[in-house]
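Entry 14. Ran structure prediction on the chain below.
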Amino acid sequence: MRKYEYLSPETLDGVFQAAAGNADKEVKMVAGCTDFMPRLSAELEEIPAGEKPDLLIVSLMKLGLDRVEDCGGTVKIGACCTLTDLAENPLIQKEFPVLTQAIAEIAGLTVRNAATLGGNIVNASPAADSVPALMALGAKLVAERAGGTREYDIEDFFTGPGGTVLEKGEVLTAIVIPKRAGKGCFKKLGRRKAETLSTVNAAAYVESENGVCTAVRVAVGAVAPTVVRCTEAEAALLGKELTAKNIAAAAEKVLGQISPIDDIRASAWYRRKVAPVLVRRVLEHAV
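Output, structure tokens:
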């Protein structure tokens, strides 16, 4: 019968030792547990005895990974910062309003009070609302393991639904975002107005000079196995005047990089219809 064990180390070394010493078990790193607990409850009701190896649950909430640091040209966000704390943080509000826009659209207040930014990332949902905003901002992810530290561009972090490049025993510890002079915007579409998963979401970041686009990043979620960095749309707009016509033409380029599916929230046809519209809107608002 599958057994469950819970540990809450106070140091990263304690986390690494727990993972290394339980190679025969499934090891799950958790923080706010807003996604994990419903999954665990379902498992306890549905999984036949003996079907899975024993599970070691390792909490990261005592590691001090809940701080926001101004590092001059960048801001370092601890992976265990709650979404509510980030939404209310004056530095985040000032430097990255597109991230606060995205956070405000995630679930409801009670979930945001417990859910962490790192958890929303590592959960690796293609519909995660924080990820397009972070991708538009050019965020980097810092992960630590017993052998040292690795840094990833966020667009290289995901391998598919629920999948990341993290290895067993490796922990996402921080999100580092460069300060930039441009403007951003996040928007989502869902089946209802509040506390809904995204049918499609999108974020954009734009810098301009004399009405010409000098830098741009665009990301779209819930239209592929992972959130997509829309490099073709970016290339179509970079160096161009930020006119409504040019923005609309660039937004259409997202169709070449998405591969939506039919699911309970929307059809692939619908997602292909609305993705360029949503990208156009976030670009227009960013401009």
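The CA atoms of residues 64 and 279 lie 37 Å apart. Will compare against last week's run tomorrow.
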